[in-house]
Amino acid sequence: MENLLTGMEMTQQQALDLIALGKDLKANPSKYAQALAGKSVVTLFEKQSLRTRVTFDIGVNKLGGHAVYLDQTNGAMGSREDVKDFAANISRWADCIVARVFDHKTLVEMQEYASVPVINSLCDLYHPCQGMADFLTIAQNYNDLTKVKLAYIGDGNNVTHSLFIAGAILGATVTAVCPLGHSPDAQIMKKAEEIAKETGATITVTNNIDDIKGYDVVYGDTWLSMGDDTPLEQIKAKFMPFQINQALLDNTGIKHILHCQPAHRGLDITSDVMDGPASLIFDQAENRMHIQNAIMLTLINK
């Protein structure tokens, strides 16, 4: 594995190794305090961010490295300078490029011309760092990921895709419960299903919440993705039956809750369950940093 753009670059053993390293980074931070000493990581952001920006910046610092943040005030990639030239220039100075972009094609081009590892910190199709943070969080609560049943509820999006891919690689059961017309990308799901055939994982999509009775973990996301200008009232009518609330937990028997945030309390999730004993949401947010550090160490020091 030389880069991380989709998550499909990982073998099952590599994914398990990343989770194990993430656990050790979390438990023994002093052990890694100089692991990236003398190394620099450029973080490129086309899109707004809280968790991604903070976790990469502080994460690199905790490893003894230096993070350089670049937003679009320096000129939009592909506009002021070609993506090719961004990648070629940064590769001469930095040891890794982390990019949060609008279009996956930007990452593909960047990888082609970069001579250092490229990490996808979010694009329109994939969010692999999030997906691996999610399974690190699950692995802290369930010993055998092949027996875990994870239900994603909401709009089929980049997070859904990465849960499918990571779940398929790790041998888990992942079901997306989506309103009609909001299913995940069929081609990406097909790729996840092909991986699942090799690992024994189960990847499915449904619009019936009753299909996830007996599952272990339920996962939520915002109903409106960044940049989506669909009127909220229109979205509420379609998505409110898919809200994560206590009634859902009682009906399904699900024990744990994840949400990649930002969460819209009272819409995609209720405050009582987000702040309640079933919630792993803030562990999940913290684990973004630990798994990203594991990914950077693995790619930079390969």
Write down the Rg: 19 Å
Q: What structural category characterises the helix and strand content?
A: alpha/beta
Order the strands across the largest sheet as they lie in space. 7-6-5-8-9
Number of strands: 9
| Overall pLDDT score | 95
Q: What separation lies between the terminal Cα atoms?
A: 9 Å
Helix percentage range: 40-55%
Count the helices. How many? 11
Helix and strand succession?
HEHEHEHEHEHEHEEHHEHH
Beta content comes to: 5-15%
Shape designation: globular
List unreliable stretches of 5+ residues: none
Biggest sheet, in brief?
A: 5 strands, parallel
Helices and strands in order, then pairings?
Blueprint: H1 12-27, E1 40-45, H2 51-62, E2 66-70, H3 83-93, E3 96-100, H4 104-113, E4 118-122, H5 128-139, E5 149-153, H6 158-170, E6 173-177, H7 186-199, E7 202-206, E8 217-220, H8 232-239, H9 246-252, E9 256-259, H10 271-274, H11 281-300
Parallel strand pairs: 1-2, 1-3, 3-4, 5-6, 5-8, 6-7, 8-9
Helix pairs in contact: 1-5, 1-11, 2-11, 3-4, 5-6, 5-11, 6-7
What does the model show?
The protein is an alpha/beta fold and 302 residues long. It is 42% helix and 15% strand. It contains 11 helices and 9 strands. The protein has helices at 12-27, 51-62, 83-93, 104-113, 128-139, 158-170, 186-199, 232-239, 246-252, 271-274, 281-300; strands at 40-45, 66-70, 96-100, 118-122, 149-153, 173-177, 202-206, 217-220, 256-259. A 5-stranded parallel sheet has the order 7-6-5-8-9. It starts with 11 loop residues before the first helix and ends with a helix. The mean pLDDT is 95.
